[in-house]
Amino acid sequence: MADQEFESGEPLAPTRGTVAHGERAPEAGRYVCCACDDPAVAAEVMLACNEVAPLCHTCGPLTNWVRAGEGA
Question: If DSSP states are collapsed to H, E and C, what string results for the chain?
């Protein structure tokens, strides 16, 4: 199966169970960016409940945070 590359000016739709930048975290904890290409070096943030999620310094508008330890 061939890899396909998609180019668009629109950010990807958030994956269920994730928090996109600008959204409020449903619960406090450590979140990792699941949009980062390399999970070994994915950005991490600590968010309080209802805190607005920031942009990932690597992914920018593609940012999707998922609570650490939870699969997306």
Answer: CCCCCCCCCCCCCCCCCCEECCCECCCCEEEEECCCCCHHHCCEEEECCCCECCCECCCECCCEEEECCCCC
Question: Per-residue pLDDT tens for 10-50?
Answer: 444 445 578 999 999 999 999 999 998 887 888 999 999 99
Alpha-carbon torsion, ordered 42, 47, 53, 59, to 10 deg? -10
Q: How far is CA 33 from CA 14, 16, 45, in A?
A: 11, 13, 9
**Tokens 């690597």, located at residue:** 58
pLDDT tens digits along 44-64 = 999 999 999 999 998 888 999
